[in-house]
DNA sequence: CTGTTAGCGCTTTCAC
DNA sequence: GTGAAAGCGCTAACAG
């Protein structure tokens, strides 16, 4: 059907092996022969058969990038950065496979299986991980197996995997061969973590310094590492400032997804519970936009009546009105680093983990609380 | 090294062929045998070798999705939609490969080669196409070849490919086999186009109806189909309303990328050229945010002094302050449809092309022009 | 430097 | 219903 190596070899008057060598370029070939082969390739419009070469060479040039939501720029930026590192010299070009898990543990595993089938050269898991112990164990086992088989595993924006840990009886055979395959490339998973805790803590300290005491939190989904870390940072700041503030923390916290409508709904719920709150911390910038919309529709001014802060510092945050105070995560740098790690082009950090610093970006959406503000105007939101 | 089909067969006490049949499920196998095989698979933690099976079956389960900028939600939303259609029943699961071309023609071709190597089941090209004749011809030829080889080709958000057209001598052998390979699946490229022209036209008509006459345009990159179509729609509306308006059209148009800073810079340039303009049309919503920022920093109010409109209706547009008047493109629906077409799960529309309607979304950023407004305040932007 | 020779792991007729 | 055998197209030792 299609043109094969043999066809090219025939036309160039050489053996298939020679054509293969010319194409992969990792072997000495006479200049004359090489150009003759190249010409034949051109003339026949030959295109290497990927599966065949992957089968014979037992390697593939696929790199999987798992994201929780590709429509969210948070992931788009990281994916783009990972991919930008995947094309060094024309030769070792890798193909990034972006897989959208939708945040579902099952799909995460499913895609990993697909990637495993393809004998992917590496996989990069981005964003928060689900904290269900069962899933975590299954995921860790799967990733360890892939790493053992030579696939590089990089975690970007989530904490390291738990160690093999506790005994795990009732398992099929072959479950004890966890040790590396004497392969050399089979280092365990590498992590590029974000300092969500520190960022959240600094953000809350900023609000506290401005004089806020009743700070609402529209947190992310429960059972997610990122959600937990940001909340922990927030509460640590509260505790350090005045342990008494912790008393109201639960009432001042609602959970939702990392999206606009969760911010909108969450803000309304918070306002219902605590009409006199003076600030709202959103799960991320996207949710912050929803919070702002809800406040505005309720008749509250930002930051006059209520201060609002986001997280991530996505591109649109600086352009929101008012510009959003948020915590910047160097997503591009983190993704690029993950990409290099996935290719083995960067030394693995000590302990297999690097933490990316986050930076507080103070902008117009936060200001000192207005003392003695009247509670929520009657009427409620207009939508 | 890894567990193979033969290992599973041995453990289950059957032949490799039987295991293969059980796994692919497209062949009658005795119930008892099937469960025995399945158990062996479980116990051995067997994972199919993708390349090997792709080689033997001469098909792959990869679907390539080419995007111009994965960090842009415009593409993220479409990619996500395409992918969401790629997993019907557990069985025929396809793996979406999102490739970021960065809008570069070379990379577009490079990725297509990579996909061709992998014998991708389908490729979906999203977003605007570069209009360089040479590239267009190369791209069309390449896509036709892939389609001829059985790969489904879908264009989403760009116009159909040109027909083979003019004679193209001086070509290698095998360049005349363009006709389908009697394969059945080898239909030519299918297109899901956006009605950019109509949307732009309606947007401009809206502005015209409000009373605007000096409308600036921060258009997208030159030589891009989307840019040209939106500009054509704009000018058609102008011409229909009053041909005299066309005279200033060129002076009132600047080009940039589809990003925030292009909108920012473009708005300043437009203001410099035409201080008394009363409205600005941005290339897309992201650029519109930049336009708004520039206007605000210049001391102009939106829509009081200048109306602003975007294009695409990305999620954040409704939350901008003021909420952005824009043209909604049903990106998710379009992407989903492209995904179904790529899988052959939806009938090819007549003529191989479907046009997705666009919808004018009138919000708060556009209003009647203020008559007799004073020109740009002195001082200029503060950044 | 180049050709020969074996497979890589799976799918798929064709017999039984 | 199941097994046997013949490749799919390429790479990777070995010879020469």
From TrEMBL, chains A, B:
InterPro entries assigned: HTH_LacI, LacI/GalR-like_sensor, Lambda_DNA-bd_dom_sf, Peripla_BP_I
Keywords linked to the UniProt accession: DNA-binding, Transcription, Transcription regulation
Keyword match DNA-binding: yes
Region Disordered: start-end pairs: 156-190, 364-383
Bias type Gly residues, positions: 166-177
Tagged with keyword Transmembrane helix: no
MF (Gene Ontology): DNA-binding transcription factor activity; transcription cis-regulatory region binding
Composition bias, Low complexity: 178-189
HTH lacI-type domain sequence ranges: 3-57
PANTHER family the record matches: LACI-RELATED TRANSCRIPTIONAL REPRESSOR, LACTOSE OPERON REPRESSOR
UniProt-recorded name of the protein: LacI family transcriptional regulator
Species, as recorded: Streptomyces carminius
């Amino acid at each position: 059907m299609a043109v094969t190596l043999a066809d090219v070899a025939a036309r160039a008057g050489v053996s298939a092996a020679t054509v293969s060598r010319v194409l992969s370029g990792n072997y000495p070939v006479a200049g004359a022969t090489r150009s003759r082969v190249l010409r034949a390739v051109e003339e026949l419009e030959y295109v290497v058969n990927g599966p065949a070469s992957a089968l014979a060479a037992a390697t593939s040039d696929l790199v999987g990038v798992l994201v929780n939501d590709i429509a969210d720029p948070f992931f788009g930026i990281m994916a783009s950065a990972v991919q930008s590192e995947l094309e060094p010299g024309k030769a070792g070009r890798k193909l990034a496979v972006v897989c959208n898990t939708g945040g579902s543990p099952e799909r995460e595993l499913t895609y990993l299986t697909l990637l495993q089938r393809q004998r992917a050269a590496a996989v990069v898991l981005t964003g928060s991980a689900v904290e269900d112990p069962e899933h975590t164990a299954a995921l860790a086992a799967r990733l360890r197996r892939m790493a053992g088989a030579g696939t590089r595993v990089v975690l970007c924006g989530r904490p390291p995997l738990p160690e093999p840990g506790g005994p795990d009886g009732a398992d099929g055979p072959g479950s004890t061969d966890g040790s590396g395959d004497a392969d050399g490339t089979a280092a365990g998973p590498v992590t590029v973590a974000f300092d969500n805790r520190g960022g959240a803590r600094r953000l809350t300290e900023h609000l506290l310094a401005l004089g806020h005491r009743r700070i609402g939190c529209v947190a992310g989904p429960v059972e997610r590492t990122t959600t937990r870390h940001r909340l922990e940072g927030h509460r640590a700041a509260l505790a350090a400032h005045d342990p008494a503030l912790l008393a109201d923390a639960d009432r001042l916290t609602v959970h939702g997804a990392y999206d606009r409508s969760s911010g909108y709904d969450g803000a309304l719920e918070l306002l219902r519970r605590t009409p006199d709150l003076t600030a709202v911390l959103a799960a991320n910038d996207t949710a912050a936009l929803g919070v702002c919309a809800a406040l505005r529709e309720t008749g509250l001014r930002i930051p006059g009546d209520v201060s609002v802060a986001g997280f991530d510092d996505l591109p649109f945050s600086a352009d929101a009105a008012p510009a959003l105070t948020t915590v910047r995560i160097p997503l591009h740098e983190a993704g690029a680093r993950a990409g290099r790690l996935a290719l083995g082009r960067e030394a693995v950090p000590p302990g297999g983990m690097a933490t990316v610093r986050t930076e507080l970006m103070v902008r117009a959406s936060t200001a000192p609380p207005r003392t003695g503000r009247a509670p929520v105007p009657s009427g409620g939101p207009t939508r």
